[in-house]
């Protein structure tokens, strides 16, 4: 990436997305920040996202869209809670204040409103505002990407696909970042189970931009959901040099690689990826995606009967500071996996009680509403499972199996909860539950034929209760 190639005031205006600042430098740094966000990469030659944001604020301290992108990025990273973090809350207030006291365009005002709504946990309303922007400005990549992230956190699979589908005709191949739309669209398609179309879009994206780590990740999902384990492994290996450079997504792509190995029962290989890539990167970055991946990996391995030794305690150091955040239910479920794995009862109790408290009066906070309808019960089921109360875990999880999508994430990530229900059902002392476990495995086999994990679980179920 070359700093001179980024768009200045005039270039943004020419694209129908004028920015309210007279600083060409601020405009170019805004573009550089947006570009790195879309590419999932901190470009060190530019000083990374943080360096660009810092320089942008120096170039024009009152640049509204500069505040929108910097505050928005911190919020969608979900690593700190504006409820607890006064600095972040103040940044949100400042963004709104600047938008309201300056002569800025309606589009920029809407961007500030969306950031404020998202900070309050009102993800659906924030998405409505971003969609409102896209209606008039379909090439506003920031609105598209922020809404994409928010839909992902809500498990809103339809909107994830349709939001991109609606704007595609307005984009032309010569436009900056055009190829990255393919990966975004592909991801929405695969979450709606249009696997062949998803694969086609992702591969088109990769033919234009081989280093597009999100398109790689989309292909990884397709192979995962179809249990095409060997194809998935071959693909990840053949593309490793391309996506490794994407520091924000590399760990997640390694996680997908490890899932294939776990599916095959190659636990040592999976643990090696955990140690050398996933945990190492998670510890260094503190990024939420890396943290939840590390948590879910250990949890899956342990469900499979693999001893993960002291890894839980090491990971607890990373998750424990987030115990009271409660930004997303999805994050909370993963923090709980770690405190249960590390047998840190006080932390587990604190997390669950905090979540229960917020679920009582969620107000406009969509995530706290989901905590009440789904999140708290899933947390309780995990606690019961960890204590060997398998029947109780089944009773809590089974009624929620079709609403678990509300906790957010992808089908591949949520599969952990399907596995948990099956494991609990197989291990339950109740005959009815064990029968249910076998039925769930038959169902799983029809959705993902050729899955070695399903076969293993079927054998286990039959061995336990001939």
TrEMBL record:
It comes from Oryzias latipes. Keywords: Repeat, TPR repeat. Belongs to the TTC38 family. This is Tetratricopeptide repeat protein 38. InterPro entries: TPR-like_helical_dom_sf, TTC38. The keyword Lipoprotein does not apply. The keyword Repeat applies. It comes from the Eukaryota.
């Amino acid at each position: 990436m070359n700093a001179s190639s980024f768009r200045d005031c005039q270039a943004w205006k020419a694209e129908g997305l004028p920015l309210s600042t007279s600083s060409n430098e601020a405009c170019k740094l805004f573009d550089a920040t947006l570009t790195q966000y879309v590419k999932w990469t901190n470009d060190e030659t530019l000083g990374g996202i943080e360096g660009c944001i810092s320089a942008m604020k120096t170039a024009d301290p009152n640049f509204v869209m500069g505040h929108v992108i910097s505050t928005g990025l911190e919020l969608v990273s979900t690593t700190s809670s504006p409820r607890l973090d006064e600095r972040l809350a103040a940044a949100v207030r400042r963004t709104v204040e600047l938008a309201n006291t300056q002569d800025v365009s309606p589009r920029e005002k809407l961007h500030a409103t969306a950031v404020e709504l998202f900070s309050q946990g009102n993800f659906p309303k924030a998405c409505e505002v971003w969609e409102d922007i896209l209606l008039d400005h379909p090439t506003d990549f920031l609105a598209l990407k922020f809404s994409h992230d928010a839909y992902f956190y809500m498990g809103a699979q339809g909107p994830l696909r349709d939001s991109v589908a609606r704007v595609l005709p307005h984009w032309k191949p010569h436009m900056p970042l055009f190829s990255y739309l393919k990966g975004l669209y592909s991801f929405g398609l695969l979450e709606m189970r249009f696997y062949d179309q998803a694969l086609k879009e992702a591969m088109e994206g990769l033919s234009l931009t081989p280093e597009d780590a999100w398109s790689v990740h989309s292909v990884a999902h397709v192979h995962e959901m179809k249990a095409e384990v060997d194809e998935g492994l071959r693909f990840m290996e053949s593309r490793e040099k391309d996506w490794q450079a994407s520091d924000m997504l590399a760990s997640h792509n390694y996680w997908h690689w490890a899932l294939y190995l776990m599916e095959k029962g190659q636990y040592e290989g999976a643990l090696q990826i955990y140690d050398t890539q996933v945990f190492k990167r998670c510890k260094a970055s503190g990024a939420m995606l890396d943290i939840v991946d590390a948590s879910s990996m250990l949890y899956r391995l342990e469900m499979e009967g693999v001893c993960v030794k002291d890894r839980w305690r090491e990971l607890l150091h990373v998750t424990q500071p987030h115990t009271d955040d409660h930004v997303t239910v999805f994050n909370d479920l993963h923090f709980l996996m770690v405190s249960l794995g590390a047998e840190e009862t006080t932390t587990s109790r604190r997390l669950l009680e905090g979540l229960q408290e917020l679920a009582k009066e969620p107000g406009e906070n969509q995530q706290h509403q989901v905590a009440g309808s789904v999140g708290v019960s899933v947390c309780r089921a995990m606690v019961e499972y960890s204590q060997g109360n398998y029947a109780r875990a089944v009773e809590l999880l089974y009624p929620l199996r079709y609403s678990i999508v509300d906790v957010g994430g992808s089908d591949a990530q949520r599969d952990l909860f399907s596995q948990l229900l099956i494991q609990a059902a197989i291990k339950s002392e109740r005959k009815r539950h064990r029968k249910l476990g076998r039925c769930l495995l038959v169902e799983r086999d029809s959705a993902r034929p050729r899955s070695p994990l399903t076969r293993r679980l079927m054998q286990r179920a039959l061995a336990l209760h001939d």
